[in-house]
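Key idea: predict the complex, not the pieces.
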Amino acid sequence: MADDDEIILSELDDEELVLQMHDDLYDGLKDEIEEAVNILLERGWTPYDILTKALVAGMTIVGNDFRDGILFVPEVLLAANAMKGGMFILKPLLVETGAPKMGKMVIGTVKGDIHDIGKNLVAMMMEGAGFEVVDLGINNPVENYLDAARREGADIIGMSALLTTTMPYMKVVIDTMKDQGIRDDYIVLVGGAPLNEEFGRAIGADAYCRDAAVAVETAKSFIARKHNQVAAG
Amino acid sequence: MTDALSRLLQTRDWLMADGATGTNLFNMGLSSGDAPELWNADQPGNIAKLYSLAVDAGSDIFLTNTFGGNASRLKLHNAQARVHELNRLGAEIGREVADRAGRPVIVAGSIGPTGDIFAPMGTLTHALAVEMFHEQAEGLKAGGADVLWVETISAPEEFKAAAEAARLAGMAWCGTMSFDTAGRTMMGVTSAQLAALVEKLPNPPVAFGANCGVGSSDLMRTILGFVAAGTERPIIAKGNAGIPKYHEGHIHYDGTPELMAEYAVLARDAGATIIGGCCGTMPVHLKAMRAALESRPRGPRPTLEEISARLGGFSSASDGTGDDEGGAGRERRGRRRG
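Result:
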């Protein structure tokens, strides 16, 4: 049943093509995503519409199924990789057209902590969701976070720790931000295996994120709130 | 059947492994961020003490201080050229402690994950992983480890690479994965899948099982999953002493010695042969576990309800085995070209 079932992307109408892109993201098909992005561009879609309606919407489905234990890390990484292929085409066009930005995050493991696999997953999924990510790597003292956040004009500071001995350092970073009067300039998200919501609240983070999918959803909702505030103000 | 662990398993119906390495070393002054493996060369007295704490608390098996002793992890400390040395020293110190114990004690050469993600998304390949694990295994062998002990793995590819490294080094080995994501490993492996994977290896491990993860209840559910898969192989249970809790600037694991003793007996009754702790498990926990294993008679295999009643609830409703296997999946719109 090979040929009968083959889908020719260019023969699908817009609505079907977007739904097909959601499926192809889900299956991590990078070549097909790139082809579809180019087809929509040829049909006159704005880069921003392609990003939000096709790619980000598709990755939301992936993120939800990851959160619900239907997909696991390997599938999510493949999906993020396909998304990245589409983003590579869109990125210069988004800049050219002055499209609104999803947001920018600086992320790293805290001082003393060298365990970076969780941080890497969050970075990949945030990129997959259309965010710009500045990866500070491992073992970051407070000044790394704050210098990078200032330099990059970041919206979000993300901190990760795997050890019970290093997670208290997150509070050091947040307290320093308070001392400098810049705490409310940034959304602070924290994560890592030994953390929990109670800990996130206790140290004054905006949110604890249980996994990479939750990090993306949380980042999106905080950014949306921030935009609303700006609009209202 | 010539390795010391297999011989010991023939004489006993359960063995106790050790507890936490990191938690104990931090108590001795290790700074977080430093590689514990460097202490095999710089603070050998502390490492001997770490091993002795486990042996004195009644452990029949202890793991060497070499968890992060592969080139990829040591590179973070610019010590990637010292893989053989640090692993050899970690095992040598262990050999001395074990030989002084006055009873058979197994030195298990700890091998943790590389921390890298496999291609195509990451950079790790099978050949690279085998090379790194093999280098580490040769160091552990040279230092006199009785068996290799592969632990906290989440990717099946990495588990297979470690098995091949053990074969290349000519060492018997044990292997455990960390089931921390709704009963599966981070990479989606279920307990039933690991039980099946183990039997497909050309050089299967002496024993296999689960370590770390979420709490003792979840770990017990994983053990029941191995048993349900019908394995004939000895099962390893090495669970954390509860869950880390934050109190006024300090963090401690909430599992009491009494809870860990309860867990040890339940793990044995569920079908585990090698029982130990992981993060947060201190000598006081091990002593309580040993005493309970020696004094309390075997009971029937516990049900999930009994486990949650005695150890606490589970972190997720399902663990991906049995009726839930394969997941619900997503309804596809059309067929994709392959």
